[in-house]
TrEMBL record:
InterPro entries: RIX1_N (IPR012583). The lineage of its organism: Eukaryota, Viridiplantae, Streptophyta, Embryophyta, Tracheophyta. It is found in: Nucleus. It comes from Gossypium darwinii (Darwin's cotton). GO terms for cellular component: nucleus. Its main location: nucleus. Belongs to the RIX1/PELP1 family. This is Pre-rRNA-processing protein RIX1 N-terminal domain-containing protein. Pfam families: RIX1. Keywords: Nucleus. Transmembrane segments: none annotated.
Length: 195
């Protein structure tokens, strides 16, 4: 089999599998594998590894099947990290779920968003003590809700899902430590925007 370059659609499932096996920690592995998150996110974004979108005129069911299997594996790995009791792995999974929400196909998003929303919501409940996990969770929830806002056919359900955030958000705003992080972040945004 010949490949033109890294943008060749035949390579996308293989590259995704490589990133997952070489760069993404496994929840069951207790060794402290580090994830080069920037490298992974750049590859996902630049190569469209989660899009499952074949170029026009390409009809190859084997490529579609391989790609769907690779993305399924990716989603399951990311979700296992989101549920991790180890804060670093949980944070990594949450960040990667945000990227997945932005980059996956519409069909996958519409099929999985209730599960993704509930997994993220669990990480802003009071049981999660890590501020970095909560901040990453809000960023990923924002990615998910922004993307879902483009689909009028699920507007009612998305509104119900978003309503589940009201109490946890109010609880966090009343948490002095989290409020301080938000104030520092908003000041940094203000000063960045001012220059």
């Amino acid at each position: 089999m010949e490949y033109q370059d890294v943008y060749d659609v035949k390579l996308k499932p293989k590259i995704l599998e490589y990133l997952m096996n070489d760069q993404i920690p496994n929840e069951n592995d207790h060794s402290p594998q580090q994830c080069d998150l920037q490298r992974v996110v750049n590859a996902i974004n630049n190569l469209g590894l989660l899009s499952e979108s074949l170029p026009e005129g390409t009809k190859n069911s084997k490529i579609c099947e391989d790609w769907a299997i690779a993305v399924d594996s990716w989603v399951h790995r990311v979700l296992s990290l989101v549920s991790s009791s180890r804060s670093r792995k949980c944070w990594t999974g949450i960040c990667l779920l945000g990227v997945t929400c932005r980059e996956c196909s519409s069909n996958r998003l519409l099929a999985w968003y209730p599960v993704w929303f509930d997994k993220l919501l669990a990480n802003i409940q009071p049981a999660s003590d890590y501020i970095s996990v909560k901040v990453a969770t809000f960023a990923s929830l924002l990615d998910l809700l922004k993307r879902l806002g483009k689909y009028s056919e699920i507007k009612k359900d998305v509104t119900v899902q978003a309503g589940k955030l009201i109490q946890p958000v109010l609880d966090l705003l009343l948490d002095s430590e989290f409020s301080e992080v938000l104030m520092v972040s908003s000041r940094q945004c203000y000063f960045t925007a001012s220059f």
